[in-house]
Amino acid sequence: MLKIHNLHAKVEDKTILKGLSLEIKPGEVHAIMGPNGAGKSTLGYVLSGRDGYEVIDGQVELKGKDLLELETEERAREGLFLAFQYPVEIPGVSNMEFMKESVNAMREARGEEPLSAAEFLKKAKEACKQVHLPLDFLKRGVNEGFSGGEKKRNEIMQMILLEPSLCILDESDSGLDIDALQVVADGVNSQRSPERSFIVVTHYQRLLDYIKPDFVHILADGKIVKSGDASLALEVEKEGYAWLGGKAQEADA
Amino acid sequence: MSQWLEQVVERAEQANLTGPRLQALTALKQQRWPTRKTEAWRYTSVTPIEQLSLSSVQTIRANATDIDGLDSLDLVFIDGVLQQSLAALTLPAGLTIQPLSALSDEEQTAASLFGQIKPAHHIFGLVNDVLAEQGLIIDVAPGADITQPIRIINLSSQGQESHVRMVVRLGEQSRLCVIEQGEGQDPSLHTAFAEYQIGPHAHLEHYRLALHTAKAVQVGGNHFRLLENAELNSTLVAFGSDLSRLDVDIEHAGEHAHAKFNAIYLLGSGETFDLHSCIEHAVPNGTTEENARGIVGDRAKAVFNGRIHIHRHAQKTLAELNNRNLLLSRRGQINTKPELEIYADDVKCAHGATIAEIEEKALYYLLSRGISRSQALIMLNFGFIQELINQIPNGAIATWLQEKLKDKFSQMEVK
Ligand SMILES: Nc1ncnc2c1ncn2[C@@H]1O[C@H](COP(=O)(O)OP(=O)(O)OP(=O)(O)O)[C@@H](O)[C@H]1O
Ligand SMILES: [Mg+2]
């Protein structure tokens, strides 16, 4: 599914990813944990092709394609989905219009007919219910005035509608109450399939009780410094990141 | 005086002008060629005019863009020369169209033709006064409701210079729709000024589509004079070119008149457009709503100067002026300046100007969901232009413009 090899990337002259390698097979769930400022969100931005995030070295392949050659929108159409740590508010564009445009952009890329307004509405309502958001959230401006937890659920709703092949969830659990955490986890689990892979970025082992990862990686100072199975998350929960030593501690500042 | 202006004066002197046009020549001779120190030309340089190399041999002819579904009576000028015989036109009852030459000096004076365009800020109005050889005089009889829009098309082809003048007079309680459409892209110079007198209770729907681009220089203006209870609904759409400049004056000469003026400009890379509007409330109880909105691309330059002048006796005036801009690049430039001169105390007057930039985060969010860049830009940033398109009374023009403007916008680069 995804092969990252020796990825180096910088933002405004600051090198943040410093030789990150990671391989994800179809159907796998990989959790990434790591101190604040380690570069977890940066990894998501670099993979999705955000302007200003410059790759200085390394390769990334998505389903055998050179991902770094593609524009942001093309990456999305190739099946890459990033649930944002901080979803963007766009007043003036309705959530409904936004999601319809994006679903139809994906369909067009796959050579399918666009959904009619009625067809889309039906799907959107189902997805909306699945993440326990009231239906009027479809009419509101994109994330406009949504609470932190509502924004996260809105991201999961988009993921359900867009049917991506690689989902990167950047702290989709932070700021959620216990019930919302369950909703988000259920949403993710409902999408798990042998063809779909997940990168779950989280600070808390708790989410991983709900979404069972196949692998857990520790990202510190722009690199994967340790990988293991689900038990690694429990270790982190107990011991924190002190064992990483000096360099990563700086990044923790 | 510049060389360019000198040759204009020379040509005008050979034309044996009389009456108001001779007065215009006298006034023109006293004009200074605009520099950056000339207030009305502070942000826009006239050097593209001086640097144009024009030839008298016509090479490539321009073609007018069609507006689908618009059933209009078209009058086409190519490089200032009317392509049809006015005598051969069948016109609806109440409408007359004459060539400019049909007006005698006396009539010109009586109709106060060639006098409206204010020399203080219209040096090119004077140039047009003395050089315009062709033009139209359109009259609508009192009470006549002319349903078919009249479209005046001005095409500029390579190497050509043209000066066209128009006078439109709407009689009491009449109605008319006029579309002025100008196009060209090759090196050329076009001036087009039109004066409208809207009679008591008359209604004018007006469009100025200033679609000159690239190397085609155009300078022009519209002067609207509104009598009692007259109504004006005018929409201006402009692209930019090496130099594109329009001056729009709206004069409330009769009470209870209502003017609505919307302007849209979309400037691609390196283009310039300068809009000066001046609203004069000389009498009480008039209302004016003006909205100018534009998108300015890389290294493009927009100038908007919106003046509202409310005279001492013009009580109960309601005037609103708003200018909104979207800047697509740090290298683009917008100079916007509302100018209010209010001498009456019982008036409502509002003005405002804003400049927004592309929100990188919002754009990225949409792109990350597979939405194309052009579609994302339209979703995020076309709304404020769309609002003005939605206000266009003529459905065919609105539909056509929507396509054309969206298209242009989606091809503009964001830097
Ligand atoms: N535009 C920028 N200019 C300079 N530094 C930046 C910029 N964007 C991000 N960084 C820095 O890059 C580092 C990595 O940030 P990133 O958001 O990827 O961390 P993270 O691992 O997601 O942290 P968190 O757990 O707090 O979400 C941080 O030190 C951050 O300050
Ligand atoms: Mg982060």
UniProtKB/TrEMBL annotation, chain A:
GO molecular function: ATP binding; ATP hydrolysis activity
Gene3D superfamilies in the record: P-loop containing nucleotide triphosphate hydrolases
Domain of life: Bacteria
ABC transporter domain segment(s): 2-246
Keywords: ATP-binding, Nucleotide-binding
Family listed: Belongs to the ABC transporter superfamily. Ycf16 family.
Entry-linked PANTHER family: ABC TRANSPORTER I FAMILY MEMBER 6, CHLOROPLASTIC
Protein name stated in the entry: ABC transporter ATP-binding protein
From TrEMBL, chain B:
Classification lineage: Bacteria, Pseudomonadati, Pseudomonadota, Gammaproteobacteria, Alteromonadales
Span of domain SUF system FeS cluster assembly SufBD core: 156-384
Protein name: Fe-S cluster assembly protein SufD
PANTHER family associated with the record: PROTEIN ABCI7, CHLOROPLASTIC
InterPro entries: Fe-S_cluster_assembly_SufBD, SUF_FeS_clus_asmbl_SufBD_core, SUF_FeS_clus_asmbl_SufBD_sf, SUF_FeS_clus_asmbl_SufD, SufBD_N
Coiled-coil features, chain-numbered ranges: none
Ranges where the SUF system FeS cluster assembly SufBD N-terminal domain occurs: 7-152
NCBIfam families in UniProt: sufD (TIGR01981)
Organism from which the protein derives: Bowmanella pacifica
Pfam family membership, one: SufBD_N
Biological process per Gene Ontology, one example term: iron-sulfur cluster assembly
Family: Belongs to the iron-sulfur cluster assembly SufBD family.
